[in-house]
Specification:
The complex is a heterodimer of chains A (about 210) and B (about 100). Chain A has about 210 residues and is mainly α. Chain A has a domain of about 90 residues. Chain A has ten helices and no strands. Chain A is extended, with a radius of gyration of 24 Å. Chain B has about 100 residues and is mostly helical. The longest helix of chain B is centred in the middle third of the chain and has 25 residues. The radius of gyration of chain B is 17 Å and the shape is elongated. Classes of the chains: A mainly alpha (about 210), B mainly alpha (about 100). Chains A and B meet through helix 1, helix 2 and helix 3 of A and helix 1, helix 2 and helix 3 of B.
Chain lengths: ~210, ~100
């Protein structure tokens, strides 16, 4: 069992090293498609690290958003711009100082955090025990996670759902225009200024 | 056995990353991006076995599906130079080509 724990530690170390190397490579490479490929690799690496931390759901979100959707969006942007990054004039020393200061502060703060998985970490002693003891009588749902999400934090979940619904509506309004044209009710576009703006942009792109 | 496989996989990941960084042609980079995703999927499966929780295999399968979508997007970008074409536009470009 000890050897397997050591192996997970080695995997962690190698993944973190590769993560640093990938970040450096993203900074150095001028070819933008390579940068897109490397950012995909970066988010897959951080997803692997999250899996070793037992946060499988977070890791999956990272992989789906970072490696899946972001790659698609970056490539869509790349189709509209040039392939190579323009050379920036020079390194600004102020930015470098700010970055190193922030990093040093974060590293300085890290030892104060509770140990990974510790039972007495502040997040677990405040209200979680009452959730665990009371959920069966309060909510009468056998799954504690479901009880917390749907009842103890019901308004929070409602707010999250509203945010996601709004984001989805925004995406549909922005991107769904072409699909509506195919069905033949584009005459309504006068009633939707946003949509006519988008179509102006479209004609401008066709000319160029 | 799982330890040896994990070590070999980590070496392979480093090599693939080097190819994505240095790769002279675009297709080296496409292939390296795709095979890096595959290696992460394998690594998650192996991590499950290393920590005696083979149910990680299901999660690895989900990752494989996401990786597939990314590769399709990259290939579509190279074929059409555009991500927002409708099916009719794709058909007309196929005719031209």
């Amino acid at each position: 069992m000890t050897t397997s724990i050591d192996m997970v530690l080695i995997v962690d170390l190698v993944l973190l090293t590769l993560l640093c190397l990938t970040a450096l490579a993203i900074m150095l490479v001028r070819h933008l498609f390579a940068v897109v490929a490397l950012t995909g690799a970066f988010s897959l690496l951080s997803a692997g690290l999250l899996v070793t931390l037992d946060a499988v759901d977070v890791a999956f979100t990272e992989a789906a958003v970072g490696a899946g959707i972001s790659t698609v969006l970056m490539l869509g942007t790349l189709a509209l711009t040039r392939r190579r990054e323009a050379r920036s004039p020079k390194l600004s020393p102020i930015g470098l100082i700010i970055i190193f200061f922030t990093g040093a502060t974060l590293i300085y703060a890290t030892p104060d955090m509770p140990k990974f998985g510790a039972a007495d970490s502040p997040g677990l002693v405040h209200i979680v025990p009452s959730y665990i003891e009371g959920s069966e009588n309060d909510i009468a749902v056998p799954n504690i996670v479901t009880a917390i999400l749907a009842s103890y934090r019901g308004y929070d979940t409602l707010g999250e759902v509203a945010v996601i619904f709004t984001a989805g509506m925004g995406v549909i309004i922005l991107l769904g225009r072409r699909r509506e044209d195919e069905y033949g009710y584009s005459e309504e576009s006068a009633a939707f200024p946003l949509r006519s703006l988008a179509s102006d942009d479209e004609t401008g792109k066709d000319k160029s | 056995m799982f330890i040896g496989a994990t070590a070999a996989l980590l070496v392979a990941m480093a090599l693939v990353l080097y190819r994505a960084f240095a790769g002279p042609t675009l297709f080296d980079r496409v292939l390296s991006a795709n095979s890096f995703g595959t290696k992460i999927v394998l690594l998650i499966g192996l991590l499950g076995f290393l920590t005696d929780r083979p149910e990680f295999l299901d999660i690895a399968l989900l990752y494989a599906l996401v990786n597939f979508i990314g590769t399709i997007a990259i290939l579509k970008f190279f074929r059409y130079r555009n991500m927002g074409l409708s099916s009719e536009e794709i058909a007309s470009r196929e005719d031209e080509g």
